[in-house]
Design a protein that fits this description.
With 543 residues, the chain is mainly beta. The chain is 4% helix and 38% strand. The chain folds into 2 domains: 320 residues, 3 Solenoid (Pectate Lyase C-like), CATH 2.160.20; 77 residues, Immunoglobulin-like (Sandwich), CATH 2.60.40.2550. The longest helix is centred in the last third of the chain and has 8 residues.
């Protein structure tokens, strides 16, 4: 069983009378699908289920020849304390996805604690009828909607790990690990293998995920994707970009009734993400309207192309004589930390011609290039490199931004004495950091809040303590979690509500090294909670 970080869970209510079906590698599809006599295949269980049913897979490996999920409100998950792995080959085009929500009218459902591997194109795809009949008004087109993908591992896919098509509304991807995209021959024919590829799918939430070793870009939301929130993720080692609001999309995928100007992204939110080691931009905006980019830490990105932070126009071909080139308007880029290594020679921040606007608010960021000065370019002003001081004068932005060593560790976290501590502009919508720790009333610049919670602003992290919720954290009425500390500790364990109210506390004596600890949660009602110990926090859900 592979470990995965867990931070925040959402749940969808299910009818109390929902039927539960079971699948096991030792089962038989002629069985009734009970715990004692399980089915052998997930496909059979889906056929037997009705909306609201639960399907639990016993531990082991299952083969997908393109498993299609065609019913609303199904919950598909691993059996308690076991781990199910669903695998598909990447070299057979007819097996286009490992799991495929193939009916656009599907509304509601959950995938939980599953390992999803392979698929010629996608590990997981959400289908749309957007291009089935172009005479249908945009407002009448449908896509699979309101699916929660929680605590899953998705990897070694032919191209994208997760694909969202137009009108797939309200997809939530929470606490998942996503890695090794672009591992099939399809990626060699068309090198397009994102971690999460969203084309005009509104209201997407990606939160608490670990996304790494991606062939192209970690996450993008383009084609007019609206109201997408990308929060609290760690994104590392991408062959192209980290997080993009917008990119390049063909005209047919836009909703020109609600988006006549072909903005690539509308009302996108990118907060509390840690982005490290990307070949192209760490954060990029392409024709984005009303983007909000707050409290991200971006390290060693823009290694080969673009810049660490990059603004470009959209580029939508409409005819041989006409294209749409929306710029970025009403963007807010604040409280972010951007760090370049001494070997980087591309700009820290570049705005391509017509990609910026005086309506953008860019301020209170920290920029740092090790061993030399960072440079900035706005192509509409000059193609020459600008210092931060020149940038402030000529571009009219970043008046309160600083150029200094932020003092971070190898994982992008602030260390004692960082000048980023307490220097952020408070933003009411942001109450936690990348590790789900509570921010205080004097928040820090970047994704990490140093010494979060419990008044430990100057004490946390000196112990090297690391807290991790286990992959199957709740067993019966007991919560299991892992700790690793550099020294013996006496510390108070707190369980808080998501609003910060302390619900339970107890003192713990902790040995040094890595240990598994437990805590009774019998008295807690079902819901989402924060576990806090010596300034380290993580979220968990009691079912």
């Amino acid at each position: 069983m592979k470990p995965i970080l867990l931070f925040l869970l959402f749940s969808l209510p299910l009818p109390l009378s929902a039927a539960t079906f079971y699948v096991a590698t030792t089962g038989n599809d002629n069985n009734p699908g009970t715990l004692a006599a399980p089915f052998k295949s997930l496909t059979k269980a889906i056929a037997a289920a009705s909306p609201g049913s639960i399907i639990e897979l016993r531990g082991g490996k299952y083969t997908s020849n393109e498993i299609r999920i065609n019913k609303s409100n199904l919950t598909i998950r691993s059996y308690a304390n076991e781990w199910a792995i669903i695998t598909a080959v990447t070299n057979v085009e007819d097996i286009s996805s490992c799991l495929w929500y193939n009916e656009p009218e599907i509304d509601g459902g959950t995938l939980e604690r599953l390992e999803i591997v392979g698929g010629y194109y996608y590990g997981l795809k959400f289908e749309s009828n957007w291009d089935w009949d172009n005479s249908v008004p945009f407002s009448k087109r449908r896509g699979t909607s309101n699916i929660t993908v929680r605590n899953c591992i998705i990897h070694d896919t032919g191209r994208d790990a997760i694909k969202l098509t137009p009108a797939c509304k309200g997809i939530k991807i929470l606490n998942c690990e996503i890695y090794n995209s672009g591992k099939g021959p399809g990626a060699q024919l068309d090198f397009n293998a994102e971690g999460i590829d969203n084309v005009n799918a509104p209201d997407m939430l990606v939160k608490g995920c670990k996304i790494h070793d991606i062939a192209t870009t970690g996450i993008y939301a383009k084609g007019g994707a609206r109201n997408c929130r990308i929060e609290g993720n760690t994104i590392t080692n991408c062959g192209e970009g980290g997080i993009y609001l917008g990119f390049y999309t063909d005209a047919e995928w836009f909703d020109t009734q609600s988006n006549p100007d072909y903005y690539e992204n509308l009302d996108g939110i990118v907060i509390n993400n840690l982005i490290m080691n990307t070949k192209h931009a760490g954060i990029g905006l392409w024709g984005a309207k009303n983007a909000q980019v707050y409290h991200n830490t971006v390290v060693n990105t823009g290694q080969d192309e673009m810049a660490t932070l990059f603004f470009n126009v959209g580029d939508v071909w409409l005819s041989d004589t006409k294209s749409a080139h929306p710029g970025n308007i009403n963007a807010k880029i604040q409280n972010n930390l951007f760090v370049q290594t001494s070997t980087q020679n591309l700009p820290m921040f570049r705005i391509r011609d017509n990609a910026g606007s005086k309506t953008n608010v860019i301020d209170n960021n920290v920029y740092f290039r090790n061993a030399s000065k960072p440079v900035f370019i706005n192509d509409a002003i000059t193609w020459e490199d600008l210092t931060l001081a020149q940038w402030k004068t000529q571009n009219g932005t970043d008046q309160k931004s600083l150029e200094l060593d932020p003092k971070i560790d190898a994982k992008g976290r602030l260390i004692a004495g960082s000048p980023c501590i307490g220097k952020a502009i408070p933003i009411p919508m942001i109450t936690h950091d990348v590790d789900a720790g509570l921010r205080d009333n004097s928040p820090d610049i970047g994704a990490d809040e140093f010494g979060i919670a419990s008044g430990l602003k100057n004490a946390a992290n000196k112990t090297g303590l690391q807290l991790r919720i286990k992959q199957n954290p709740i067993q019966g009425e007991t919560l299991y979690f892992a700790l690793n500390a550099d020294q013996k500790l006496n510390a108070n364990l707190h369980i808080l509500s998501t609003s910060g109210q302390v619900i339970k506390s107890r003192n713990m004596s902790l040995p040094s090294g890595e240990t598994t600890q437990q805590c009774s949660v019998a008295e807690l009602p079902a819901g989402t909670y924060i576990l806090n110990l010596y300034g380290q926090s993580a979220l968990f859900v009691k079912p």
